[in-house]
Amino acid sequence: MVLGDALTRPKVMTVMSTPANRAKTAGHSVFERWGRTAYRRRRLILVIALLVAGLGAVWGTTIFGKVQTAGGFDAPNSQSQHEGSLAAQAFGRDAGDVVVLYSSKTLTTASPAFRSAVTSTLAVLPHSKAGSYATYWSTGSRQFVSASGHQTYAVIELAGSSDTARQDSYDAIKTQLGAPGLQTQVGGVVPTDETIDKQVTANITRAEALSFPSC
């Protein structure tokens, strides 16, 4: 062999076919076929997507009526809930469903006007909704009064044997808890559950609305 011929002769490289190359080619082929099929059926795919989105929206508007919306963690058909209901029937239910804080910058609980505003407000609550209540004046306990004497609270036990029933009772009286001439703040288990339920429902609805464009 002449040295000049070896230097000027073009080199021929052989590409080896490996399993990795074959897999890569096959993968491109699969996605290519998939893309071509989706393009050819694009109108049908769009119609199906719109139908699924519509069915999802209709189903989503009915889900809130099928879940527990009164707050709490009770399972109505469970053995523990059944036993709890039997115990409440036998021994009574001791619970502060609603706590109402009454306060005044000028009056104290020793004032007849303060007492009259609170007791008259609670006295007119329907017994079918507010089963019982306790105040400083009904118990004589100083634990119901703040150190300054300008605040006191009432504890209301709502009528109802389930979370939903007690929620309905609270909804019926919540606008009647304000005492004239006093600042009124409402808390307790049932109002808190209602606030949580409204916030969770609003968040879920917002999340579903935001997720539809990305589907």
Note the main attributes of this structure.
single chain; 215 residues; alpha+beta; Alpha-Beta Plaits; 8 helices; 4 strands
Architecture overview:
The chain has helices at residues 3-8, 19-40, 42-63, 79-91, 112-123, 136-139, 163-173, 189-211; strands at residues 98-103, 130-134, 151-158, 183-187. It is built from eight helices and four strands. It is elongated. By secondary structure, the chain is of the alpha+beta class. The protein has a four-stranded antiparallel β-sheet with strand order 2-3-1-4. Among the domains are: 21-62; 93-193, 2-Layer Sandwich (Alpha-Beta Plaits).
Write the layout of secondary structure elements.
Layout: H1 3-8, H2 19-40, H3 42-63, H4 79-91, E1 98-103, H5 112-123, E2 130-134, H6 136-139, E3 151-158, H7 163-173, E4 183-187, H8 189-211
Antiparallel strand pairs: 1-3, 1-4, 2-3
Query: Main β-sheet: number of strands, strand sense, barrel status?
Result: 4 strands, antiparallel
Give average pLDDT, whole number. Answer: 79
Q: Compute the CA-based radius of gyration.
A: 35 Å
What structural class should be given to the helix and strand makeup?
alpha+beta
Give a summary of the structure in a few sentences.
This protein is α+β, with helices and mostly antiparallel strands and about 220 residues long. The protein contains eight helices and four strands; from the N terminus they run ααααβαβαβαβα.
